[in-house]
User: What shape does this take?
Amino acid sequence: MADIAKAVGVSPMTVSRAFRRDTSVGEVTRKKILQIAEEMGYVFDSTASNLRSQRTGFVAITIPSLNNSNFADTVRGLNEVLQAAGLQVLLGYTNYDVDEEERLIEQLLRRRPEAMVVTGGRHTDRARRLLKGAGIPVVETWDIPKSPVGYTVGFSNADAMGRMVDHLQSAGANRLAFIGGDDKGDTRGADRRRGFVAAAERLQLEFRLVSLGSPPISMREGARAMVEVLDARQPVDAVVCVSDLAAFGALTECQRRGVSVPDEVMIAGFGAYDIAEVALPGLTTMDAHSMAIGSRTGELLVALLRDGADGAAAKKVSQIEPTLRISGSTVLR
Amino acid sequence: MADIAKAVGVSPMTVSRAFRRDTSVGEVTRKKILQIAEEMGYVFDSTASNLRSQRTGFVAITIPSLNNSNFADTVRGLNEVLQAAGLQVLLGYTNYDVDEEERLIEQLLRRRPEAMVVTGGRHTDRARRLLKGAGIPVVETWDIPKSPVGYTVGFSNADAMGRMVDHLQSAGANRLAFIGGDDKGDTRGADRRRGFVAAAERLQLEFRLVSLGSPPISMREGARAMVEVLDARQPVDAVVCVSDLAAFGALTECQRRGVSVPDEVMIAGFGAYDIAEVALPGLTTMDAHSMAIGSRTGELLVALLRDGADGAAAKKVSQIEPTLRISGSTVLR
DNA sequence: AAACGGAATGTTAGCGATAAAGATCAGAGA
DNA sequence: TCTCTGATCTTTATCGCTAACATTCCGTTT
Assistant: This one.
């Protein structure tokens, strides 16, 4: 900047101002500065700016997996809003592990993000302490935690799954199976299972649970779990899967065996992945509005960072109700 | 740090050293410093460290879309390697647009990343200039550009598609169709189409091209394009799609109409998405080893950043040959 | 006992930007 | 003519850490 200042004949401060939007620099001066800077091949150095201004323009987010298109959609929604507001997303990837999440949160906070987004409402004690002590807005997504750290953008996985069970019962299913991963790290999967069990007991339905290993669960594992369900002595009317990927795997296994869906067994998924719509029959699923979770979070953060915590946007809990998408896989012809 | 130094009774420099691996601090002193720091709720400030040490630990990457699981896999592979080496990925999302890429590259370079990864080999002139002038390792992925900016980790999309056409011919297909997006921003898609045309002409096969709008192309668009193919007067023996998503959409359309795959028409995709394996029949596809592209890039960068450009790892072009995965959709029973 | 060497710690001076406050100046109004 | 005002630009002093060099300390060697 000093070199440019010398070349243009102004002070470094003016050059600094020319590179920002909000500050007062004469139009002519600004143009000249930017032009000479470009000629000199100068690239603005954010690291220094970050330090002095105590603003980084970072928003950190931890998600369980990039592999899962639901979370990828959330990141996409978030990124779109934040990128437009000039903020840069810092992505961390916990692999469905709260200890890894803690490590990641610490690493990310060192970068001095202006806000922090985490997936889910379960964290280690130290992670909670770090988040609370950071003095920045914290948003928990994909969940409605009982004692939130800061803001919340999400929905109750248990309730959503309960609504799915209601639907299946009214569609005529009385004997159910739930296919899900083990719930070591995946709180959302565990919550869905919990919601399933609660609803099945409430409606006095027969049910069983099948576990298919640690998340992220794939189509292949869904197919494998379906083998177990179909081979079991007691038949089931409907299978509820923790995600559409598993559900599609289960559907494939039925087709392979000539088991008709939905006539012999209904299948429901979760997450409204593309595949739910395109499968034959279409998969009944719960659309969690993954991308909306991201963009809503982004909008909340942009408002918070602009107006501070007392702005109109400072609603602590923002619920995004999932939409039940009924399709061929649970509707008798 | 000054506060901690005072509390422990050492100089700030010693505290600084205690927070880094490679430096010499007495074991006892280090433990005490870290413990007191934790008690005081201190979180290391990378922004200052970055400025002074001129090292950020950032590696920036631009990808067309997070929506596409192939690129998401590349990011995942890259992130896994880099995260283990203590580096943080900065993700930017170009939306298949080279102008947006240029803007993004400039923004990202301001953060002073230690290396830059871009997708594809086509960039605006200014983007090339920025990349070359940054003085950091640059890796172009998912392509083998004719005049690379720096390092390359990828494959020839045209050649890979050529091999697919070879396979289809030997499987008995003589009249082909190619389903792809328009090639405004998606160079990879355009290269695949080019490879398709070249191979079809080389083998003297009849062929036609169907375009289904701007990328990213989805299952739905693949289905729509298949309508066009099936409704056309001239029948085709095989349809090659620019990606498995489009291919699966095409397959679904066939099933909807009762057109048998592969007996009446063969379908091939690209990218080895999960769905290719799980579809019925399985989709023949080209596995580009998306994740390996990411992890190979990561390993290259870790080696470069550790040993400098003259290390053994400094191979300029790293080719990752795609694997043809033949499945039921192109094999007559 | 003096000289030496290596590990542990301390001192000084920035990294490259910007917040905050002050200076300059042209044009408006008295 | 003189004061005043707002836009434009300058000066000064950091932001929080660490490179580079200096120093201390203690066990070894001669």
Notes: Chain A touches chain B through 52 residues (CB under 8 Å). Residues 290-307 of chain A form the longest helix (18 residues). Chain A has a mean pLDDT of 91. The radius of gyration of chain A is 25 Å.
